[in-house]
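Shipment paperwork, digital attachment
Item: protein structure file
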Amino acid sequence: MEKPLILVTNDDGIQAPGIKILADALEPLGEVWVYAPDRQQSAVGHGVSLHRPLRVHELRERWYMVDGTPTDCVMLAVRDLLARKPDLVVSGVNPGANLGDDVTYSGTVAGAYEGMLLGICSFAVSDVSYSPVHMETAGRVARAVAESLLRQRLPKDTVLNVNVPDLPYEELRGVAVTRMGKRDYQDEIVRREDPRGGAYYWIGGAEPSHVEEEGTDFEAIEHRKVSVTPLHRDVTNYGALNALNEWALSL
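Attachment content:
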């Protein structure tokens, strides 16, 4: 019987510690192939490189570096470079939470989302600390999630966003299936000048807070639980359809 083919990507670059932890954790489950960016691609969202060529370099057996986004990596691997369609796409392990509204910016989530768009069972996994000490815990959680998804398929057009507390595995308090919470971003625009007097800008600011609500991914993490959030392909606000129809929009 053919081994499951597992495609691994990330948004932190192929040299990031998290992707090796993830690939090593998944290795017992099947044939793991890594296609990941050649550099940091955090917060690129679901970006695709349409206006320049992409180059792929083999680093070692089944490990490939792409000078593009996480979405580029998954697209290239699935549509052309792999011998067959993967059974699973896993993106991570990301250092830093991807909770609530973060998913709209996250390259980590985008890698898994692209897998879902290509009809493959997919999930993203993040360690919620930006300076993780226990990233191997997220690797063990990823393997458990992957084992489940190789046995039973996700509902159609669904991708999982998994966030793991930065704790020893034994200190986790279980798993919570959650909904997206809401972030409160505190971004600032910092303006500076280069030596020639030209202006340049940094987008930065304090670490964002969140709105406290029951049943959210934030609440799960606060209770030392793994948060598993099913995200859906269809982002239509069905509740707004009637209201917009009542506006009788016309040209």
